[in-house]
């Protein structure tokens, strides 16, 4: 048994076929997913920003670092919603619909 070039000639079954949505030959028959657009089962189109991934900071070995930039909202903690941030129209509608419980 060889595992190199001679065994590649014995492959006869089709793995990828034409996808009816995007038209590419990337539709995997057994997995029923498209390698190009990512449809079936997902409805969203497959996309990836490779240039943004290349600009991310990495360690010297090439693995990804942790979160370098700590965002302001994360750094100062989650703030609760105050009454002043709610618009005046909503404030009046909230207070006018107060439920009174009979004693």
TrEMBL record:
Subcellular localization, as worded in the UniProt entry: Cytoplasm
Major site of localization recorded for this protein: cytoplasm
Family: Belongs to the eukaryotic ribosomal protein eL37 family.
Domain of life: Eukaryota
UniProt lineage: Eukaryota, Metazoa, Chordata, Craniata, Vertebrata
Described function: Component of the large ribosomal subunit. The ribosome is a large ribonucleoprotein complex responsible for the synthesis of proteins in the cell.
GO CC field: cytosolic large ribosomal subunit
Native organism: Equus asinus
Region ranges (Disordered): 1-57
GO molecular function annotation: rRNA binding; structural constituent of ribosome; zinc ion binding
Official protein name in the record: Large ribosomal subunit protein eL37
Gene Ontology biological process terms, A to Z: translation
Keyword terms, alphabetized: Acetylation, Cytoplasm, Metal-binding, Phosphoprotein, Ribonucleoprotein, Ribosomal protein, RNA-binding, rRNA-binding, Zinc, Zinc-finger
Assembly and oligomerization: Component of the large ribosomal subunit.
């Amino acid at each position: 048994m060889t595992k190199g070039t001679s065994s590649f000639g014995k492959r006869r079954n089709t793995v990828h076929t034409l996808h009816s949505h995007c038209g590419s030959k990337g539709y995997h028959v057994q997995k029923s997913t498209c390698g190009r657009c990512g449809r079936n089962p997902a409805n969203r189109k497959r996309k990836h920003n490779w240039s943004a991934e290349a600009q991310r900071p990495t360690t010297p070995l090439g693995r990804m670092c942790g979160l370098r930039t700590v965002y302001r909202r994360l750094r100062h903690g989650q703030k609760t919603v105050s009454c002043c941030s709610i618009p005046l129209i909503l404030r009046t509608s909230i207070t006018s619909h107060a439920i009174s419980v009979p004693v």
